[in-house]
Specification:
With 341 residues, this protein is of the alpha/beta class. Helices cover 41% and strands 17% of the residues. The protein is globular, with a radius of gyration of 19 Å. The protein binds nicotinamide-adenine-dinucleotide and thymidine-5'-diphosphate. The site of thymidine-5'-diphosphate has 12 residues, from helix 6 and strand 8.
């Protein structure tokens, strides 16, 4: 019989979109999970309703910037692995007000690493984004060796955090790995991001704001594929390394909006071209050679199937959506789109 102690993972930001999908994906593994989340507008405990009573899961409300709280959790629960999902994650909000992006994404990351160094952990995984590489023209893809060149306040804050993680690894032998993923979609995504925003507006026949010409390209990945990639990097990635994770599904925004409208049987006349996002990145595309050859990870979802499954999830979970689009969301929508929704 194995006498090895069950590992305990501290997941920060686990009440958000990707973190909650990650926790659900690994909850039946032989691990304990502590979820530390501040519950900002994007954090939602109903994302984890189905698993909240599991004996290997515990939720703690709090800020990753709190040294006392993070140190207490690391000691009290004898944390082995820390995965940092916690962030301010929306580009448009970073254009409206960037300050929370720098406190959570940069100072929060530094605090987690300082506390983890003091308490000694086996591995730290920083969940990052392909947006740190900037924007591509028509050709080429982002590799791990592509120089970082962020363009938005959001991506600049994620880049600062990534650079700090690499510096801690270099200077202190801090046992960190970084994943950089492309645009996620799937269940429980907050409807400020393109796919759930379009689904939500289309369901209620509201106009759909497409920035600029709609020709910008994103490389979409189903959130469950991303989460499998993160787990595989956590377990088998090399310390000090960056791993890109991507869906190999490049689509223009306008094509994507039309796919959703077609699935829902809604008219293209709902599309409204609006003023472009300032500094709007043109194209993202990820080269997955490293993670697929070293860790044998590839995306499993085909984009069309994953998108249809996601649309169906939103149709089946109108209560979840209704709860979110009240209050704060309405104010944000009005400010961002200058439209009364
Ligand atoms: P999200 O906005 O849905 O969730 C973020 C979570 O972090 C929320 O639950 C929020 O309450 C929590 N949080 C925010 N500030 C906090 C703080 N100071 N202390 C503790 N918790 C805090 O974001 P998401 O889409 O799930 O993204 C998760 C991570 O993945 C982020 O780091 C993001 O940069 C990265 N990422 C996202 C995408 C994407 O397409 N969504 C793609 C690549 C990488
Ligand atoms: P988003 O989901 O915000 O992700 P990111 O900016 O991190 O890539 O946006 C995806 C794409 O959709 C991006 O090119 C901006 C565009 N977009 C719109 O055209 N209209 C919208 O209302 C939103 C939110 C995004």
């Amino acid at each position: 019989m194995s006498t090895e102690r069950v590992k305990t993972i501290l997941v920060t930001g686990g009440a958000g979109f990707i973190g909650s999908n990650f926790i659900r994906q690994i909850i039946d593994e032989n691990v304990n999970i502590i979820n530390l989340d501040k519950l900002t507008y994007a954090g939602n405990l109903s994302n984890l309703k189905d698993i909240e009573n599991k004996s290997n899961y515990k939720f703690i409300q709090g800020d990753i910037c709190s040294q006392d709280l993070v140190s207490f959790i690391l000691k009290e629960y004898k944390i082995d692995y820390l995965i940092n999902f916690a962030a301010e994650s929306h580009v448009d909000r970073s254009i409206l007000d960037s300050s929370p992006f720098y406190s959570t994404n940069v100072l929060g990351t530094l605090n987690l690493m300082d506390c983890a160094r003091e308490n000694g952990i086996e591995r730290y995984l920083q969940v990052s984004t392909d947006e740190v590489y900037g924007s591509l023209g028509k050709e080429g893809k982002f590799k791990e060796t592509t120089p970082v060149s962020p363009n938005s306040p959001y991506s600049a804050s994620k880049t600062a955090a990534d650079q700090a993680v690499l510096a801690y690894n270099h200077t202190f032998d801090f046992p960190a790995v970084i994943t950089r993923c492309s645009n996620n979609y799937g269940a429980f995504q907050f409807p400020e991001k393109l796919i759930p925003l379009v689904i939500n507006n289309a369901i209620s026949s509201k106009s759909i704001p497409v920035y600029g010409t709609g020709e910008n390209i994103r490389d979409w990945i189903h959130v469950e594929d991303h989460c499998r990639g993160i787990y595989s990097v956590l377990m088998n990635g090399k310390v000090g390394e960056v791993y890109n994770i991507g869906g190999e599904s490049e689509v223009t925004n306008i094509e994507l909006v039309k796919m959703i409208l077609e699935f829902l049987g809604k008219p293209e006349s709902l599309i409204q071209f609006v003023k472009d996002r300032p500094g709007h990145d043109m194209r993202y595309a990820i080269d997955i050679t490293k993670i697929s050859s070293e860790l044998n990870w590839t995306p499993e979802y085909n984009f069309k199937d994953g998108l249809e499954k996601t649309i169906q999830w939103y149709l089946d979970n109108t209560d979840w959506l209704e709860n979110i689009i009240s209050g704060d969301y309405k104010d944000y929508y009005k400010q961002q789109y200058s439209i009364d929704k």
